[in-house]
Amino acid sequence: MAARGIVMEAILDRLSAVEAIQTSQDSLAKGGGTRFNWRLPIMEEADRNPRSWVISKWPWVIALLGMILYGATLNRWVSMASLPVVAKVTGWDWSPQVNGPLLHLVTVPFKFLPEASRPVALNVFTAVLAALTLMMLARSVSLLPQDRTRDQRQRERSEHSFLSIPSAWMPPLLAALVCGLQLTFWEHAIAATGEMLDLACFAFCILCVLEHRVGLEQKWMDRLALMLGVSMANNWAMVGFLPLFVAAAVWIRGRAFFDVTFLARTVAFGSVGLLLYLWLPLVATIQKSTPSSFWDLLRIELATQKNILLYFPKSRILLLSLTSLLPLAVIGVRWPSSFGDTSVAGTVLTNLMFRLTHMMFLGTCLWVSFDPKFSPRELGYGFPMLTFYYVGALCVGYFAAYFLLIGSDARGGSRGRRNPSGLAAIAGMATAGLVWLALAGVPAGLVYKNYKTLAAMDGSVLRDYVADVKERIPAKAPVILSDTSSQIQLLSGGFGSGGAGESPVFVDTQALQYGAYQVQLAKRYPDLLPKEWVESIEGGKDVFDQRTLLRIVIHVSSTREVYYLQPSFGGFFESFYLKPDGMFYRLHSYPTNSIAALGLDPVEVSKNLEFWRGRETRLTALADLIERKVPDAVAVGAWYSRSANYFGVEMQKLGGLNEAGQLFKRAVELNGENIAAIRNLRFNEGLRSGNPKSMEASKTEEKLMARYRTVDELLAANGPLDEPQSCLEIGTVFAQGGLSRQAALQFLRVQALDPENMSARFWLGNLYLTAPLPEKTLEIVREIRDRKRTTPLSTADSIELIRLEALAVFGKGDTPGAEKILQEARKEFPREDALLDTLFYLFFGTRRFEKGLESIEEQLRLNPKNLRAILNRGATYIELKDYPKAVAALDQALKLDPGNANALRNRAIAKLKSGELDAAEKDYNELKRMAPDSHVVFFGLGEVASARKDKSAAISHYEKFLELAPAGSPEVVVVEKKLKELKGGL
After folding, report:
1. 616-628 b/e with 16+ CB inside 10 Å = b?
2. CA-based end-to-end distance of the chain
3. Which segments of the chain have a pLDDT < 50?
């Protein structure tokens, strides 16, 4: 019976197809040669569609339900995702907005509200946008035609093929529930991230396409073009979707798309929308919020979009399209009734394949809403990718309608056809039943999966963090520095809305190098910086070096207490060190004539231990939220993890191994990817067991370390490491970067943890020489020689020890003693270049250039291609004012290494001193090509122009030198004097 039912249905389908062909031929015969009517009649819902309420009223009911849901779960303050938008509107972020002009425009009215109420007001506005987006989704599902396959055309005969069965209300509802309850959509619906505005624009564009399909009314295409222009200016992703919307318009209109009037009008509306690109550069220029010009800001805006579009992995877009754009493309095709096979078996197989394909797409789109590994949330590189979720939900609505329509025959719902029997009827009922099951099960599953996560994103996690910082802030408003803009913005909001007491001064150290930021700080905190300093930079494009910033911090610390929000390192910490105080750190100046910092006293240790013990319950709850991947908890957990790791290191240095172990363990619980805490915990376990082992990195640790391009990035994200091998590597990086004190502290720690490590001792000896603390270097030399060891020093280590001793003796002013040490060592090691090189240094430093040349010649007899010796020969001849020999030596160096900047610079100096101005200028221009921002080059070019009496060129080069030269450069005073003379002469 079942087989007979399928065969009979196939025969009836074939007869229907033949009848449709005959009707089409009759119509063409009567139409006087007309081949196709490209226009559809305009829809009159109330008169012609008995289910018009599904299209006109039901979407608004769904929007109301969405508004109730999002209002009930609304974020009551900010989330980490919404912080950038809220910070712009509230003024917590100093920098001018360079992207998102539509977002800037629609949020302008919120700036007139009280500051404390703006975050919640923005969240409410976002919830309204989310509800409207669901309304547009529901209406779009209702407007999707159910005539794509033969099965649908035989069952749905309503005008425009809108679903007209009694359950037509169900697909829009299912689509809205799948989209609205999906985690990414939900979290961006209750906090003002700006993403919901972009999605609402995208949803409106899709709605315009579907509305235009119904009646081909020009107004919908005008609206589409205008919104596409506006959306592209606001959101880089819409640039990528533009070709798809154009293709959809061509698909719907056919040849009518290429009508000149239509194209001109559409392009005109789109161009009006694109004018929004000019809005943010215009605002910044009028408000003078940045020294950058209008065109610079426009280029930044366009370049940002271009770079994201070019460098976002195309393979991921393709993968995401398989569960969104591909099903949508299938929906867009009106499949023929026959693919050339006129047999009954072929028809049955075709019907079966269509149904299986639709079922596969429906199941996959529903699965994606639960965020599997191939979902937009997992593959988006941090971007929400809401458009892909939206398209997937749209497809869910269509496929649900398809199966409800196909299954309606089993209940006698078709018009003009016999009811099927047997297997076909059972299959129809089963698929329709599955869709109804999905309506109940999928939303329930999404709520179960997502609600706890969303409930935790009410702003409470961030408020607790702010409360922990506020608890330790002293009564007198301090200056709080931070390397992370997000933490500065968060605390600015937390303290700004707190009311009582004088608010601290928050300073973003990453932005402090910019003169424009310093001007903004001076406006907000008038007493922070010297007035004359601010007046000297106002309106300029100044970018300051690290030494200038250090002077600013020293000035500020002389009048206020200064704190850091996170454990940090870098230029400031050659003069200051940190002491932890809960979640932030007091900045202290180093003691005079000391490399090491003062450790924590018992009171400070007790206060910090009390802080961490008092938060055990809260941090345990936070770890639970982190395990559920609550975004706010993950961000805050990383901050707590870094601080716990830092204090753990301090406790380990003081000998509190058990307390340190507990802190490292807590740091790992709060951030399972904190590689510093992971390695510190492992080494701590070895220390506690009395058997510290060599720390070979595991494969997991290697993967975590590979995420960071530099040591700076690793330390900034995780805090310090406290095991010998890591300290040695970090100290080496610091030493090579000129952070001598911080490098020395790392090597001292290696010494304490691994007394047999010679590399750290040699590094320390060299760093003490540059301090200069030659006595400390001699102490290390004596300690190495006196230490009993199982294996003797290598030849390289012995020579390095001699070199250190000689330079330390020389540093104490005993030049003959240093020379004697080196000459005696040469008897034992006659062919060691390092000893000759050190001798040259002694002779050059005491201006005994002839003796220095003897050392150089000895080096070159050992190795005629010794580049360092050749360079030293050229420098020595410059000091002796024998410029032809200097040039000859430097020519030889450049043959060995054509790109050697030192050789090129010294040759330019030698030629300038000898009066070869053209040759000197040529060398300086080559240096300029190699290093366009080198202040040394412009000094040399200024000297060349001055020697030629070319005052205009000299002034230009000297002014460029002053713009680029670091503060404290010895040539600055000379150049300033020369400029006064030159300008006076003019």
Report:
1. eeebeebbebbee
2. 110
3. 1-48, 50, 410-418, 421, 497-501, 986
The type of residue at 437 is L
pLDDT of res. 226: 96
Q: Which of 391, 423, 455 is at the close of a domain? A: 455
DSSP character at residue 588: E
Return the exposure string of 232-265: e unless at least 16 CB atoms fall within 10 Å of the residue's CB, then b. bbbbbbbbbbeebbeebbeebbeeebeeeeeeee
Longest C-alpha distance within the chain, in Å?
A: 119
Same domain, 581 and 611: no
pLDDT at 649: 96
Indicate if 384 and 470 belong to the same structural domain. Answer: no
Do 364 and 467 fall into the same domain? no
The answer to whether 80 touches 485, Cβ cutoff 8 Å, is no
If asked whether residues 682 and 578 sit together in one domain, one would say no
Distance CA 785, CA 789 (A): 10
Give residue 37's pLDDT: 35
Six token digits for residue 582: 């809960």
CA distance 629 to 631: 6
How far apart (Å, rounded) are the C-alpha atoms in residues 897 and 444?
71
Q: In Å, what is the CA distance from 129 to each residue of 175, 394, 624? A: 17, 18, 31
Is 432 part of a structural domain of the chain? yes
Name which of 644, 648, 621, 622 is nearest 634 in CA terms: 622
| pLDDT attached to residue 344 | 64
8 Å CB contact between 910 and 886:
yes
Q: Are residues 633 and 712 in the same domain?
A: yes
Does residue 831 lie in a domain region?
no
Whole-number Å distance between alpha carbons of 361 and 328: 10
Domain total in the chain: 4
Q: What pLDDT shows up at residue 756?
A: 83
Q: Within a domain: residue 463?
A: yes
Q: Which two tokens stand for residue 410?
A: 């089993």
Q: Are residues 79 and 90 in the same domain?
A: yes
Structural domain including 978 reads 933-986
Q: Please provide residue 448's backbone torsions phi and psi, each rounded to the nearest 5 degrees.
A: -60, -40
Question: How much is the pLDDT for 599?
Answer: 85
Pair type for strands 479-482 and 505-508: parallel
Whole-number Cα distances in Å, 359 to 105, 144, 242, 831: 43, 18, 29, 82
Bridge partner residues of 564 (DSSP):
481, 585
Can you give the pLDDT at residue 538? Answer: 63
Interstrand relation of 505-508 and 562-564 (parallel, antiparallel or unpaired):
unpaired
Output the CA–CA distances (angstroms, integers) from residue 453 to 70, 129, 181, 183, 446, in the order listed. 14, 21, 12, 8, 11
Instruction: Please report whether residue 546 resides in a domain.
Output: yes
Measuring CA to CA, which residue among 552, 574, 555, 561 is closest to residue 508?
552
Q: Which of 362, 354, 371 is nearest to 324 (CA)?
A: 362
Cβ atoms of residues 405 and 146 within 8 Å: yes
Same domain, 116 and 148: yes
Write down the pLDDT at residue 18: 42
Which run of H or of E encompasses 507? Answer: strand 505-508
Alpha helices, H only, 582-698: 602-613, 616-627, 631-653, 657-670, 675-688
The residue among 404, 105, 91, 418 whose CA lies nearest residue 231 is 105
Output the pTM of the full model.
0.83
SS3 140: helix
- 535, two tokens: 């007046």
Residues 748-781 have pLDDT tens digits of: 999 999 888 889 999 999 999 988 889 999 999 9
Tokens of 526: 């008038």
**35-80 pLDDT, tens digit each:** 333 333 333 443 345 468 899 999 999 999 999 999 999 999 999 9
Residue 289: predicted pLDDT: 73
Are 638 and 592 contained in the same domain? no
How far is the C-alpha of 265 from the C-alpha of 459, rounded, in Å?
47
**Which tokens sit at 474?**
């002293």
Which of the listed residues 690, 722, 754 is the one where a domain comes to its end? 722
